[in-house]
Design goal:
- The protein is an alpha+beta fold.
- The protein has 4 domains: about 80 residues, no CATH class; about 100 residues, TATA-Binding Protein (2-Layer Sandwich); about 120 residues, Tick-borne Encephalitis virus Glycoprotein, domain 1, CATH 2.60.98; about 130 residues, no CATH class.
- Strands 14, 15, 16, 19, 20 and 21 form a 6-stranded antiparallel sheet that branches.
- Strand 8 and strand 9 form a beta hairpin.
- The longest helix has 29 residues.
- The relative contact order is 0.15.
Length: about 500
């Protein structure tokens, strides 16, 4: 029992609470370093293949599911318990202090650093009335036979408690938000559309209590994407023009900008990225259409030099085909090398390496759609023995060597990356954070002060006044405050304020 009490006292101390908060931040770091199974299953599968021993231990220790791992939840739960254990006793003590009178006048006021002593013609009762009138409403005042006691600064402890209660609220709201919110990503090409449905998302991260069939019903079509760049290539603006179709079939037009999301009930659609998606057609050796579609190429720099891959698994005659390379929106030859000199599509050129063989799509291991797995593939070479590089401008068709078919660069539409987010706890989270901020401000900037005044009638006439002040911590304003409390004594005012 002794050890249990000791452990509870340690757990509910503010020092341990701060340590647990630090441990929680450290415990969350692997989630941003190691790929997470919920966010990047292809990255997890790739790590397991490339580093089987390390990946096995990481999987056993829960590093692929950090935020739901037992050790992360243990730190989270201990922090939660520690905060509750810290707050409840402090609330009880604070309530008791609020309803208790200020402490009695100490026996020796001479020991305090801030001290005033003088003689006045006012009566002792007038001295106490004057100090009381000046002290209110900031001070709680109590007059006893020993003298006057005054105290202020309870807002400081109230703010401290409010901060910790709000921090507890942040933890609660955050935990609840992980259960009832979801986020999804979708890359949509101009002229195409998608529904707010799990089957249409490129990635989908739901909370534990989210019903996939209960998502906000709407369909979004990307009509056009306006991109504006300066002459130097600096971005000046991005606007996605979309058509929204609601559940009843009604349509409406809307715009989405990087900092101006489209809000649909409790769901928000953000424009998070953009680029080019070359529309490609690939035919096999027999002339059959094996692939047709727009393939997003991801920008790699400020001039939108973009990289991407094209996977052609449905080849009826021969091996599967794979293409990897880069898109140069404004291609220009400089120093014997092709470069993109501007992000606008003024002179687009598609440069592709060609592979044939097995794409590995039937192995059951998730693949990154923007990366080509070439372990079971052979790269085509040119007549000079070097790796073959195909250059395509919009409208060009190139016959592939070895009778593998042909590839056509049809046109160059744009794509937009959109994030779909639904989190009903954001308002609560904002409220909790705001309360925490207010509590912290009150705790940091409200001085906690005590003042005592003794007024003793002298035998020869007059009153000897001795006053002292005490503050918690360094308080440069204590002396001035003490002087202001004593300033009205010599005004000779009676109880009715008449001189």
């Amino acid at each position: 029992m002794v050890w249990i009490r000791w452990a509870w006292r340690q757990l509910t101390s503010m020092r341990v609470a701060l340590l647990l908060l630090l441990f929680l931040a450290v415990a969350a770091l692997p989630g941003s370093i190691v790929p997470q199974r919920a966010h990047d299953p292809a990255g997890v599968a790739e790590l397991l293949v490339n580093y089987p021993s390390l990946g096995l231990w990481l999987d056993r220790l829960g590093f692929f599911n950090v935020y739901s791992s037992p050790w992360f939840m243990a730190v989270y739960s201990l922090l939660f318990i520690s905060l509750i254990g810290c707050i409840i006793p402090r609330i009880k003590q604070h309530i008791q202090a609020l309803f208790s009178p200020p402490p009695r006048v100490p026996s020796r006021l001479a020991r305090f650093p801030e001290r005033r002593e003088f003689v006045t013609d006012a009566e002792p009762a007038h001295v106490y009335d004057a100090v009381r009138a000046t002290a209110r409403p900031w001070y709680r005042v109590n007059v006893t036979e020993d003298g006057l006691s005054a105290e202020r600064g309870y807002v400081r402890e109230s703010g401290n408690i409010l901060f910790h209660l709000a921090l507890l609220g942040v933890l609660l709201v955050f935990a609840w938000g992980q259960l009832v919110s979801y986020s999804a990503q979708k890359v949509v090409v101009e002229g195409e559309s998608f529904a707010n449905s799990v089957v249409d998302f490129d990635s989908y991260i739901p909370g534990g209590l989210v019903d996939p069939s209960g998502l906000e019903p709407f369909r979004l079509r990307l009509d056009s994407l306006d991109t504006a760049f300066s002459s130097t290539g600096a971005p000046e603006g991005f606007t996605a023009h979309v058509t929204l179709t609601d559940q009843a079939g009604g349509t409406s037009s809307a715009e989405i900008k990087p900092n101006e999301p489209l809000r649909l009930g409790g769901t928000s659609v953000f424009l998070s990225g953009n680029g080019y998606a070359p529309r490609i057609e690939v035919r096999d050796a027999d002339g059959n259409l094996a692939f047709s579609g727009a393939v997003p190429f991801l920008p790699q720099d400020t001039v939108y030099r973009s990289e991407g891959v094209i996977k052609v698994p449905d080849v009826t005659s021969g091996d599967q085909l794979g293409f990897s390379g880069e898109l140069l929106p404004t291609a220009l030859e400089q120093d014997g090398m092709l470069r993109s000199v501007h992000p606008s599509a003024s002179n687009p050129l598609l440069l592709l390496h060609v592979y044939h063989g097995d794409l590995g799509l039937d192995d059951g291991i998730p693949q990154n759609v923007y990366r080509l797995t070439t372990d079971a593939m052979e790269q085509l070479s040119g007549d000079d023995g070097e790796p073959l590089v195909i250059g395509l401008a919009p409208g060009d068709t190139v016959e592939l060597p070895d009778g593998l078919g042909s590839i056509t660069f049809v046109d160059l539409p744009k794509f937009a990356s959109v994030d779909i987010r639904h989190d009903p706890t954001l308002g609560w989270l904002l409220g909790a954070v705001s309360l925490a901020f207010l509590g912290m401000v009150a705790s940091l900037f409200t001085p906690r002060r005590r003042v005592w005044v003794e007024a003793t009638a002298l035998p020869e006439g007059g009153t000897a006044v001795e006053a002292a002040g005490l503050s918690r911590g360094t308080d440069v304003g204590l002396g001035a405050d003490l002087d202001s409390l004593l300033a009205r004594i010599d005004l000779r005012e009676d109880l009715n304020g008449k001189p």
